[in-house]
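Practice problem 4.
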C-alpha cells in the first residue's frame, strides 16, 4: 500500500492559497472562501494548520461578510449559505467563533427558511437539501438551532427520500451520494436518523464501490474521490474538462459523501475499506503534492480535501479523525460543541 504524502500535500495547499493571478485562481475567485475551508481543514487533519498566518486568514474571512450577516465567496461578493458555512467552519478551526456577531449571522440563516421547512440558498430563492444541511450545521455550531423550526426542516428532508432509500435535492429528484450525505448528516445532527431505512440506504451506498476500490455517486458512474463536484465547480479544471469529467463520470470526493453516510448509518463494514484507501492514495501527485479526482488527472484543493478526509474516516494512521456529520476534525467539534 502507498503512503500519504503529508509534507507535499501541505506545501501544495499553501502554494495554491498564495496564488492570485493564474487561471485557476481567477476561475475560483467567487469560491475562494470554500477553497479556504477545504485547504485549511486538510492542513488541520494532517497536523499542519500552524503553517498558515492565522490572523491574516481571519481578517480576510471577516471582510467577506455582508451587512445582512451572511458571507460571500470572496470580498465584495453576494452572501450565500454555502459561503456562510465555510466562514463559520474556518473560524471554528482557529477557535475564533467569538469574533462573529452570532445573532446577526444566525438571523441571516434562519431568515432563509421557507414555510414548508426547506431553505433557500440566498435571497434569489433556490431550494435544495444542501441548504437544509448547511443551515442546520451552521446554527448548531453557533448554538442557535432554536432559531429555526427544526421539525419542519426534518419533515422537508424526509419528503425528499426516494424508494431506493436515498435522497434527492428536492422531492422526487434523483438519489445522489452528495445529497444523501447532506440529508443523512442533517438528520444525524438533529437526532432524526430513525427516519432512515439504514439497510436499504446502506445497500444503495455500498453498491457505489467499483472494481478499482473507488466510489461513485450514482449508478453507472465511474469511481471518484468525491462529488460535490456536481454541487460546486472543482478548482483545478477548465470549464470543458469539468463538464466532461462530471457529467459522464464520478470522482475521489465520493470517498467522503458515500463513506461518511455509511458511517453515520453504521453500515461502513459493507464496503472494502482497504481497496478504497489504495484508490485514494493512487490519486496523489507524488512529485508536487495534491490529490486528483481519479488516478493521473490534475490535482486540486477540493479533491485533496476530500481524499484526505476520506482517509481520516478510514482511520488512516498519522492523521486526525474527522467527524462524518460536521465535516470538521473531531477535536474542533468537541471544542465548539462541548467546550473542551
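Answer key:
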Amino acid at each position: 500500500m502507498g503512503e500519504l504524502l503529508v509534507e507535499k500535500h501541505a506545501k501544495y495547499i499553501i502554494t495554491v492559497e498564495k496564488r492570485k493571478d493564474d487561471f485557476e485562481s481567477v476561475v475560483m475567485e467567487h469560491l475562494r472562501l470554500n477553497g479556504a475551508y477545504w485547504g485549511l481543514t486538510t492542513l488541520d487533519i494532517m497536523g499542519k494548520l500552524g503553517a498558515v498566518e492565522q490572523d491574516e486568514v481571519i481578517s480576510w474571512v471577516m471582510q467577506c461578510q455582508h451587512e445582512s450577516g451572511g458571507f460571500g465567496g470572496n470580498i465584495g461578493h453576494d452572501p450565500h449559505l454555502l459561503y456562510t458555512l465555510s466562514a463559520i467552519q474556518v473560524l471554528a478551526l482557529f477557535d475564533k467563533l467569538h469574533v462573529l456577531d452570532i445573532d446577526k449571522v444566525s438571523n441571516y440563516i434562519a431568515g432563509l427558511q421557507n414555510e414548508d421547512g426547506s431553505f433557500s440558498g440566498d435571497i434569489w430563492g433556490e431550494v435544495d437539501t444542501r441548504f437544509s444541511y448547511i443551515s442546520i450545521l451552521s446554527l448548531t455550531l453557533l448554538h442557535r438551532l432554536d432559531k429555526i423550526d427544526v421539525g419542519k426542516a426534518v419533515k422537508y428532508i424526509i419528503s425528499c427520500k426516494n424508494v431506493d432509500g436515498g435522497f434527492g435535492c428536492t422531492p422526487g429528484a434523483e438519489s445522489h451520494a452528495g445529497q444523501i450525505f447532506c440529508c443523512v448528516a442533517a438528520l444525524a445532527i438533529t437526532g432524526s436518523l430513525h427516519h432512515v431505512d439504514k439497510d436499504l440506504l446502506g445497500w444503495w451506498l455500498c453498491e457505489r464501490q467499483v472494481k478499482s476500490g473507488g466510489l461513485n455517486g450514482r449508478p453507472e458512474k465511474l469511481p471518484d474521490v468525491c462529488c460535490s463536484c456536481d454541487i460546486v465547480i472543482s478548482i483545478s479544471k477548465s470549464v470543458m474538462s469539468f463538464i466532461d469529467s462530471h457529467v459522464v463520470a464520478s470522482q475521489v470526493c465520493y470517498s467522503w459523501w458515500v463513506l461518511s453516510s455509511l458511517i453515520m448509518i453504521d453500515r461502513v463494514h459493507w464496503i472494502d475499506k482497504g481497496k478504497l484507501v489504495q484508490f485514494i492514495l493512487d490519486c496523489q501527485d507524488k512529485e508536487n503534492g495534491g490529490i486528483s479526482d481519479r488516478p493521473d488527472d490534475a490535482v486540486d484543493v477540493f479533491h485533496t480535501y476530500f481524499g484526505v478526509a476520506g482517509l481520516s474516516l478510514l482511520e488512516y494512521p498519522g492523521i486526525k479523525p474527522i467527524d462524518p456529520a460536521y465535516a470538521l476534525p473531531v477535536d474542533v467539534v468537541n471544542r465548539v460543541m462541548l467546550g473542551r
